[in-house]
C-alpha cells in the first residue's frame, strides 16, 4: 500500500549551488549527501517530514541524470511514493499494465528498496516506489 | 518561513482518467475537485498528509496548463512550499534576486494566498509558495 509521498526529486546541474539555494534562500534543513553508485547519481536530501526534497546530480558526469539534464534541462525529475509492501504494490500495478524500468526492486538511497515506473505508464511522470530499509 | 511541502502538481490531459488512476491503481484518497477560475485551472487533490498530490488540467481548454501540455506534454508541473508568512518569504527571495510571475500573492485553491517563482530563478522548477487561508 502507498503510505506517503516519500520525496520529490529535482535534477540540478550544479549540486553545490543548489544545496546552498535550498539551505540559504528557502531555509530548508540539509540532511546530507549520498552517492548511489548503482544509479550513477549523487543525491542531497532536505527533509520536510514525512517527505523530502531530493536533489539529483550525475555521479562522475554520467548516467541517467546526465541524460535527463542534456535532453530536458534542470527541473522536476521524479516523485517517489513510499510503500509498506513494495512487492505487492509492484505486482498489483504490473497486473494493471504498468511498465517498470526494471524487473524487480533494487537498492537505492538510504538502503531502501526502489523501483521506477515508466513515465509512459503514468501521465509522463517518472514515479519511484520505495520501501524504507531497516536503517531508515 | 517555509514550513512544509504543501503539494506537488502534475499536469494531466485527461483529468477523469488520472483521478481514476491515482484512486484505483495507487490507492490514494480523492479529496475532491476545485476549479480555480483566476488560474484557468481545474484541480483535483489527493492528500498524503501533510502534503498532497494535485492534478492540474486546463479549465475550459485554455490557460497556462493548456500551454504547458502543448509545449511539454503531461508530467510534473510544479511544487509548492507552504509558508507561515508569505509576504516575508517573498520579500526575502526578491531581495536575493528571485523573479516572480506576479507582483504580489493572489487567491488560489483552498482559499490560500499563492505566488509563483519563475522557473528560471530556480533550476528550471516552477515553485509555488502558498499560505493557507482561514478555511484551510
* Cα-based radius of gyration of chain A, to the nearest Å: 15 Å
Write down how many β-strands of chain A occur, each being a DSSP E stretch of 2 or more residues. 8
Remind me, CATH topology of chain A? 2,3-Dihydroxybiphenyl 1,2-Dioxygenase, domain 1
- Identify the overall geometry of chain A: globular
CATH class term of chain A: Alpha Beta
Taking pLDDT < 50 over at least 5 consecutive residues as the criterion, the unreliable ranges of chain A are none
Strand order of the largest sheet of chain A: 2-3-4-1-5-8-7-6
| Overall helicity of chain A | 10-25%
Oligomer state equals homodimer
Topology summary:
2 copies of one chain form a homodimer.
Chain A: E1 2-11, H1 15-25, E2 32-36, E3 41-48, E4 51-58, H2 64-72, E5 75-83, H3 86-95, E6 106-107, E7 113-117, E8 127-131
Parallel strand pairs in A: 1-4, 5-8
Antiparallel strand pairs in A: 1-5, 2-3, 3-4, 6-7, 7-8
Descriptive report:
Chains A, B: GO terms for molecular function: metal ion binding; methylmalonyl-CoA epimerase activity. Two copies of one chain form a homodimer. Chain A has 136 residues and is α+β, with helices and mostly antiparallel strands. The first copy, chain A, has a single domain (2-131), classed as Roll (2,3-Dihydroxybiphenyl 1,2-Dioxygenase, domain 1), CATH 3.10.180.10. Chain A is 22% helix and 38% strand. Chain A contains three helices and eight strands; from the N terminus they run βαβββαβαβββ. Chain A has helices at residues 15-25, 64-72, 86-95; strands at 2-11, 32-36, 41-48, 51-58, 75-83, 106-107, 113-117, 127-131. In chain A, a hairpin with a 5-residue loop joins strand 6 and strand 7. The radius of gyration of chain A is 15 Å and the shape is globular. The model of chain A has no long low-confidence stretch (mean pLDDT 94). The A-B interface holds A 1-2, 4-5, 8, 10, 12-13, 18, 21, 25-28, 48, 50-51, 53, 73-79, 81, 92-93, 96, 98, 119, 122-125 and B 1-2, 4-5, 8, 10, 12-13, 18, 21, 25-28, 48, 50-51, 53, 73-79, 81, 92-93, 96, 98, 119, 122-125.
Amino acid at each position: 500500500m502507498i503510505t506517503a509521498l516519500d520525496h520529490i526529486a529535482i535534477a540540478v546541474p550544479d549540486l553545490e549551488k543548489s544545496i546552498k539555494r535550498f539551505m540559504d534562500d528557502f531555509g530548508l534543513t540539509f540532511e546530507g549527501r549520498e552517492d548511489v553508485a548503482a544509479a550513477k547519481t549523487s543525491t542531497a536530501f532536505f527533509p520536510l517530514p514525512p517527505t523530502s526534497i531530493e536533489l539529483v546530480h550525475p555521479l562522475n558526469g554520467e548516467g541517467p541524470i546526465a541524460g535527463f539534464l542534456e535532453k530536458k534541462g534542470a527541473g522536476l525529475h521524479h516523485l517517489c511514493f513510499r510503500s509498506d509492501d513494495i512487492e505487492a504494490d509492484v505486482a498489483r500495478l504490473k497486473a494493471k499494465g504498468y511498465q517498470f524500468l526494471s524487473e524487480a526492486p533494487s537498492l537505492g538511497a538510504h538502503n531502501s528498496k526502489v523501483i521506477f515506473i515508466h513515465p509512459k505508464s503514468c501521465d509522463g511522470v517518472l514515479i519511484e516506489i520505495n520501501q524504507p530499509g531497516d536503517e531508515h
